[in-house]
Amino acid sequence: MKTTIQEYQKAVVLISKTKKIILGFALSLLLLSCNKGEDDNAISSEDAKMSAKIDAMNDDVSGLVEEQEASTYSNAISGKVADLAFSELSTCATITRVPAFGTAPTVGQTVTKTIDFGTGCTLNSGYVASGIIIITFVFQPDATSHTITYSFDNFFHNGIEYNGNRTLTRTMITTIANPILHPQVTMTLDMTATLPNGQVYTRVGTRVREIIEGYGNAILSDNVYKVTGSWVTTTPSGTTHTTTITTPLKIKMSCIAENKPLLVSGVLTIVRNNNSSTLDYGNGICDNIATFTVNGNSFIIIIGN
Hints:
Layout: H1 5-40, H2 45-74, E1 94-98, E2 110-116, E3 121-122, E4 128-138, E5 145-157, E6 160-163, E7 165-173, E8 182-194, E9 200-213, E10 224-234, E11 240-252, E12 263-272, E13 275-283, E14 289-294, E15 297-302
Antiparallel strand pairs: 1-2, 2-4, 3-4, 4-5, 5-6, 5-7, 6-8, 7-8, 8-9, 9-10, 10-11, 11-12, 12-13, 13-14, 14-15
């Protein structure tokens, strides 16, 4: 039986439609498979980016808190940082103290320092802070261990709101790598970060920061810190992942002169449902990028302004 041109054209159209239906069905299965996989795989690049932002805030704030406590001991009457050019703080922040500046605290007295960033203050690291940080500690000049607590009041760091009370314990130690007595600060994390769109991340864990270069002089810009620790983060969707610093992070205060974030190297390993990814802060150069690697694919993440 002969096939007319019209019948042939109809058959071609039918085959074409059938192919599209099969292809559409296959793509639907693929998308469902991918979406299902996202629940089981390592964290997304967006969550990794948020992790980097929280890290940057923690380093900025812990540095400010340590600095404010240390300045009370270096100059008990004025209680202020000697040279703001080499400080994490900048001139747009207002600092008050109880007991008031001009009066030296007595041994055993509780000192409260309040840093008010107003509606927007650019730190020397390049980040923008607003709101208030309240720092409290007991004045003990001869103690080898100091505990500092601090809390936030309407505090924002680069547009992200942070809440929670945290504790820093500063202890004088010696190590094989650095036999000179020097400070190590252990930070207890229990905090929330709220994005402008209302999404909330929580973080609970421990972060340890040790000065490994530059301690013992009045020059802040040559200070280098090593950071270790681990923590658990809960994302807005309710999923959790564990982060461990597998290669110690390095903080270089000299990056302040370049108006760059202070984290310059080190690797975080992030595990979610037994699937690992990494966040690599680089090779020691003052820049604002990190490399996120998941499932063999790498992405550049901007961590600063």
